[in-house]
Design a protein that fits this description.
Elements lengths: L2 H19 L2 H13 L8 H14 L9
Length: 67
């Protein structure tokens, strides 16, 4: 297996893990926000994650957290 193959496989694993954990959601948000209204300030990652958590907890279809 060549170095190129290892890098390609590692890149695919990284992509999968980021999608699985939701880490790539912020990157998609930033790309969408900048494409649709470049003058609007973009939320920081911390604010974005808080807003995602609040929205998830407010939606009964997503379940709830007891703790």
């Amino acid at each position: 297996m060549s170095v190129r193959d290892v890098r390609r496989i590692a890149g695919r694993i990284r992509w999968y893990v980021r999608e699985l954990t939701g880490e790539s959601a912020y990157d998609r948000y930033v790309a969408h926000a900048r494409a649709h209204d470049p003058d609007t300030p973009v939320m920081t990652r911390r604010v974005f994650e808080h807003s995602r958590t609040d929205a998830r907890e407010a939606d009964p279809r997503e379940g709830f957290r007891c703790c």
